[in-house]
Amino acid sequence: MKIGLSSYSLSQAMNTGEMSILDAIQWVADQGGEHIEIVPMGELDLIKKPELIEQIKEKANDVGIDISHYLIGANFITESREEFAAEVARVKQHVDIAQQLGVKLMRHDVAWRSGEDASILQFEKDLPILVEACQAIADYAKPLGITTSIENHGLYVQASDRVQRLIHEVNRDNFKTTVDVGNFMCVDENSVAAVKKNLPYASFVHFKDFYWRPSYQNPGDGWFQTINGNHLRGAIVGHGDIDMREVAKIIKESGYDGYISVEFEGMEDCRKGSKIGMDNVRRFLEEA
Questions:
Q1: Which of these, 30, 35, 71, 181, could form a disulfide with 4 (CB 3.0-4.6 Å)?
Q2: CB contact at 8 A, 241 and 210
């Protein structure tokens, strides 16, 4: 397993201009990271700024780390077939960027709904269109040697069973899941149990941690609510309420031998939070 960082973890510093993506790559290498995930957010738009692609590749090569993963948002629930086709075409553009980066793994979202619209009945109604989109993109990516994936992310297709349902319906050997050990909490699923369920389908693993408080104990600013009204706040990996040592043990004993990436979205300085998180994940896996 190779331990590294998502560029998203350093977005706090990149959004203020303190770091560029090239600075972020250098920083990850300086902390002993073995890879970086590229998440195009804000100014990091590789469609509008294609010159960054070669710069990112050269920098990663210079500092001796892998570019492991390329992650984008997407929503295939649209008002018309024309909009659906346009969204599939847009995601295929990003598959081309993944190839240009030399990346063999790419995550794309599939849908966003909330409240009553996020019911299991609505999910079953939406499933055929989501399957169609994921099949088209996976089929486009396969000749390029790229495995696409869905992350347990975005509330609507976040619970472990819904992720598995989509994977089985898509039925492509290059369509899997990016398992985010923290995100299951957003739909009030136990992270240890959910990781056990979905790890066999994993193409990638994210370590993210949260602090948790029940719905009747509103902690105030800085927290957000789960699908059932409980409260979460991003934490440094190993500092939150997920049993990270047990998660590390499950992953190590499973035989998973892919990339592991730390995602930090806490209130602390992003560099401090990311470094402590990577150090903790490394230690938890060594001790497991």
A1: 35
A2: yes
User: Using an 8 Å Cβ cutoff, are 244 and 238 in contact?
Assistant: yes
Tokens 């902390």 found at: 31
Q: What single DSSP character describes residue 240?
A: S
Q: Name the burial class of residue 252, with classes exposed (0-12), middle (13-18) and buried (19+) by CB atoms within 10 angstroms of its CB.
A: middle
Contacts for 210 with CB less than 8 Å, ≥ 6 apart: 182, 185, 232, 233, 234, 235, 240, 241, 242
What six digits make up the tokens of 112? 């966003």
Three-class SS state of 25: helix
Reported as a single tens digit per residue, the pLDDT across 218-271 is 999 999 999 999 999 999 999 999 999 999 999 999 999 999 999 999 999 999
Contacts of 188 (CB under 8 A, 6+ apart): 226, 227, 228, 230
Burial class (CB in 10 A: 0-12, 13-18, 19+), 122: middle
> Which residues fall within 8 angstroms of residue 80, CB to CB, at 6 or more apart?
none
Cite the beta strand spans of the chain per DSSP E.
Answer: 2-6, 35-38, 66-72, 105-108, 147-151, 175-180, 202-207, 209-213, 224-225, 231-235, 259-262
Total-model pTM: 0.96
Residues of the chain where predicted confidence (pLDDT) is lower than 70: none
| 194 touches 151 (CB < 8 A) | no
Whole-angstrom Cα distance, residue 114 to residue 156? Answer: 7
User: Scanning the structure block, which residue is given the tokens 């993210």?
Assistant: 208
- Determine if residue 148 is left, alpha or beta; phi over 0 gives left, psi from -120 to 50 gives alpha, anything else beta: beta
CA pair distance 34, 60, nearest whole angstrom: 10
Which two three-digit tokens encode residue 215? 């719905």
